[in-house]
Amino acid sequence: STQSHGESKFFVLCLCVCVCVVVMRQSPINEHLLDESAAFSSSTNFEPKSTSHAALTQLDNASFSWFHVKAILISGMGFFTDAYDLFMISLVQPMIAFVYFDKVHGTMPAAEESWIKATALVGTLCGQLIFGVLGDCFGRKSVYGLTLIIMIVSTLLSSLSSDTFLGIGIVPMICFFRFCLGVGIGGDYPLSAVITSEYASQNRRGQMMAAVFAMQGLGILFASLVSIIVVASFKSAIYEDTANLDYVWRIVVAIGVVPAALTMYLRSKLPETPRFTMHIQGRTDQAVSDVSQVMNSSTSETEPTTGNLNRDVSSSLNTPQAPVPNQRITIESLLNYFRHYRNWSVLFGTASTWFLLDVAFYSQNLFLPHVMSSIGFVPSDASATPYDIVYLSAVGNAVISLLGTVPGYWFTVFFIERMGRLKIQYMGFGMISLLLLILASAYNQIANITWLFVGLYSLTFFFANFGPNSTTFIIPGEVYPTWIRSTAHGFSAACGKAGAIFGTFGFGHLSQSKGISTTLWCLFGFTVAGFICTRFVPEPKGKSLEELTDESGHIELPTVHSRT
Q1: Can you give the pLDDT at residue 21?
Q2: What's the rounded Cα separation, in Å, for the pair 268 and 309?
Q3: How far is CA 525 from CA 357, 437, 463, 529, 532, in A?
Q4: Residue of 110, 137, 299, 346 with fewest CB within 10 Å of its CB?
Q5: Which of 506, 534, 560 lies closest to 433 in space, CA to CA?
């Protein structure tokens, strides 16, 4: 108890120190509230206009460079860690159940199981909202490292959770630390998306953002592989005493610290995005300097026009620049922006599609062990040993990841700039709906043919990731102005996590009380609704971030986006 109490104090102390450091580093907030378009249209600041426009044009037309690779890896490793921490809980939950609850079948009461799986999602929702706003107020870089610190500390403390702490059992302890972990994970969503979006070139922006998000698939696969290796390493010990699973699940959880720790230093060296520096802070000189550094890291030959722009940008560094007018996020500016139909309808589109997708996607992921058991892949009879159950559950997750999850992410990377975001999203929702319809209507027949069920179920993950699971992350990072981009992305992502929480609690009880078939029918309804709500989402393909807003700051909606 004393040790656990000390761990809690250490955790709180770390958070307080980190928050103080972030706040102390911030510059004063500019009180002027002007449209982002003023940075390019103000006649009173001709020289900054010319310089800033040249810098952003240079960034939009940049060749793919080593800097872009670093940005993908730095942001992507965060998502790798996020996915590992979020989805490995479905693998370690049976281990916890064997140790602290049912030592024969590895089950725990439905309420405890739902709380263990959902608390990280609740924390993620909070983190998306909080860090989304902080990213627009203080800058993307300023709070980016804090998310990793929270994740590292919370993961370690989760792995050290004890059975009794002042009368508190293992489940509340794990839930508390996983909530804190979720806050850090949630912050990664808007910040990684916006940083990647604002640094990417115009014709590779979707591809770069998709590559960052694709690391989530590798994180899910890595969680399965780690579980397989660790469980197999303890095979004899588990057969001797099921209580040895207590070591296994703690090791699996603690390994999530490794990728986060490896990314810390690189994130500290990543510069602030030029668009935030220019549009929000009004520091044109610094923004132009950062763009020049990005261009100098290019490993490919640039076009002649791009080379001329690079010389223009470099020469401007020797000339003092006046600050550029900027827009700041306030309650008043938010209300003014979303009073326009075109703006709030797009927010409805990005938020609703993410919500509807995550209801189905997280429900399928988190209850995959139940599905594997129901079709006989994981034995559930009295002859099954604890080792068989936890080992085959991990193998089943790995198979689904290899067949559907990971390939789907990378198909999006390769095709998003050819097909566009909306075609992929429509296709994904449509195919998921069709597959769920087949599985739900013929569940009793298909469930008896293991290879067929696993194949169809894997395809739902493939088209989720080569579909709306990727595009709902990408589009909110593109279609909003700089001053609100992180906040709007965070809000859309939080709506997605609300759907994940709803799916975890609602469909967790539903799958146990009404069966898998009924659950699949309900998920079918949500994916059909997601297909319908996609009509509110604009197509950002081929446009710069500045072109996606007009002079009054409204989002440009293409007139025929649903037919192209």
Answers
A1: 38
A2: 29
A3: 11, 9, 16, 6, 11
A4: 299
A5: 534
Query: Percentage of the chain with pLDDT > 90?
Result: 38
User: Nearest to residue 473, comparing CAs of 124, 163, 210, 104?
Assistant: 210
Q: How far apart are CA 115 and CA 348, in angstroms?
A: 29
Report pLDDT digits (tens) over 149-185.
999 999 999 999 887 656 678 888 999 999 999 999 9
Give the Cα separation of 269 and 71 in Å (integer).
11
Measured CA to CA, the distance from residue 427 to residue 412 in angstroms comes to 12
Do residues 193 and 489 make contact, with C-beta atoms less than 8 angstroms apart?
yes
Q: What is the residue-averaged pLDDT of the chain?
A: 79
What does the alpha-carbon distance between residue 358 and residue 353 come to, in Å, rounded to a whole number?
9
Is 362 in contact with 203 (CB distance < 8 Å)?
Answer: no
- What are the tokens at 531? 């297909």
Percent of the chain residues topping a pLDDT of 70 = 76
The residues that bridge with 66 in the sheet, in sequence order, are: none
CA-CA distance, 510 to 485, in Å (whole number)? 37
> CA angle 187-24-197, nearest 5°?
35
CA nearest to 359, candidates 187, 150, 508, 146: 508
pLDDT(379) > 70:
no
- Binned at pLDDT 50, 70 and 90, residue 490 comes out as very high
Alpha-helical segments (H) within 200-244: 205-233, 235-240
Q: At a CB cut-off of 8 Å and minimum separation 6, what does 266 contact?
A: 70, 73, 74
Do 530 and 354 contact (CB within 8 A), yes or no? no
Of 22, 55, 497, which Cα lies nearest the Cα of 273? 55
**pLDDT for res 5:** 41
Structure token pair of residue 218:
């590798």
How far is C-alpha 455 from the chain's CA centre? 26
Distance CA 17, CA 23 (A): 10
Tokens of 374: 């129901």
- pLDDT (tens digit, 9 = 90+) per residue, 38-70? 333 333 333 445 556 666 777 777 777 788 888
In the chain, the amino acid numbered 40 is: F
Q: What is the C-alpha separation between 27 and 34, in angstroms, rounded?
A: 19
Residue 65: half-sphere exposure toward Cβ, Cα within 13 Å = 20
* Positive or negative: CA dihedral 55, 57, 62, 67: positive
pTM above 0.70?
A: yes
Distance (Å, whole) CA 399 – CA 10: 39
> Which three-class secondary structure state does DSSP give residue 163?
coil
Which residues contact residue 298 at a Cβ distance below 8 angstroms, ignoring those fewer than 6 apart? 62, 63, 65, 66, 67
Q: Which two tokens stand for residue 523?
A: 């998920």
How confident is the model over 134-148, as pLDDT tens digits?
999 999 988 998 999
Distances (CA, A) of 246 to 6, 117, 229, 394: 21, 18, 15, 16
375 with 400: CB under 8 angstroms? no
Q: Which of 535, 537, 540 is nearest to 209 (CA)?
A: 540
Estimate the crossing angle of helix 245-254 against helix 89-100, to 10 degrees: 150
Q: How confident is the model at residue 399 (pLDDT cuts 50, 70, 90)?
A: confident
